[in-house]
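Researcher: We're teaching a course module on how sequence relates to structure. For the next exercise, students receive a sequence and then see the predicted structure as tokens, so they can try to spot secondary structure elements on their own. Here is the exercise chain.
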Amino acid sequence: MKRLLLLLVGLCIAVSAWAHKPSDSYLTLRIDEATVHGQWDIALRDLDFALGLDGDGNAEITWGEVKTKQREIAAYAIARLQLGAAGQGCPITVNDHLVDDHTDGAYAVMRFTALCATPVQKLTAKYSLFHDIDPQHKGLLRLDYRGASSTAIFSPEKSQQEFTLAEPNKLRQFIDYVREGVWHIWIGFDHILFLLALLLPAVVVREARSWQAVSAFQPALWSVVKIVTAFTLAHSITLTLATLGLISLPSRWVESTIAASVVIAALNNIYPLFRERRWMMAFLFGLIHGFGFATVLADLGLPQDALILALVGFNLGVETGQLAIVAAFLPCAYLLRRTTLYRRVILYGGSILIAVLASVWFAERAFDLKLLTF
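Model: And here is the predicted structure for the students to work with:
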């Protein structure tokens, strides 16, 4: 029991460390003949990690602290962004510094211009911000040219890209949004834990106030199909409505409710309320999770001329990532369903761990607290 407790605590610490939003920056480039007008939003928490913005060490970054580091921020960032056209570099000059709030915190905003030798037909961009210290960091690019927009995602594996301005590549945009959807569900630990909490009892059945293994694979598969379908349908509805601007909810309310949904789904495995109607829970709370997905999609800087393309691609990516998780979980759970390890440790212990962790997330999000320091 003592070893189990230590294991659960260790897992809690590890998952907590992963649970925060991954590192992203938002880069907007507008091409006007030979001039590139740019805006670059970089999270202060990431800059603090790289440059030490928090001078007094009180865990709060003020405008004054950012202001004293403006030159250092500009030098650090611009050294990691190279723009070019027709085989020549386009020197970058920073014009202004601001601070703006995103859904996940404060960002430093740099506005700059890059002057190319000739009018730009093809733009080459090399992006390496934070790639030396955070291999998961991504740069989310929106490129505007004569009223048309295209998007791209920079990563350590895809740090240099070329853009033909007259011919925005719709297929590449679609693939990028599919990839972003897959990535988001895989690093969206609150969404994953909600889904896992619903799936854990799929290979067992409640009898005489205890969980017993299902006798065949088909009932377990059918239970999973109902849950995944309900969750997919629900979050697809609200993701679409929010992305099209038809419904908008406060980000803190959405994120707090998502955390609460994880708590309820986990506790339902210990004190069943929905019993075999977990698909209903998946649908009801899936509506809220859809608003969470929409927030991420909005942060990518959606091109208005490719809005439906981006929406469909992102949603397809979310479903693909979700199905990959289910495909990995279900066979393993079915093979272990008769063991004490599964029914006592994985089902009960895992549900308790998920409930505790999600409760901390709820407190942080609902009351704007910082309870986890890692």
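Model: If you want an answer key for the exercise: Residues 24-168 form one domain. Residues 268 and 274 are 7 Å apart (CA to CA).
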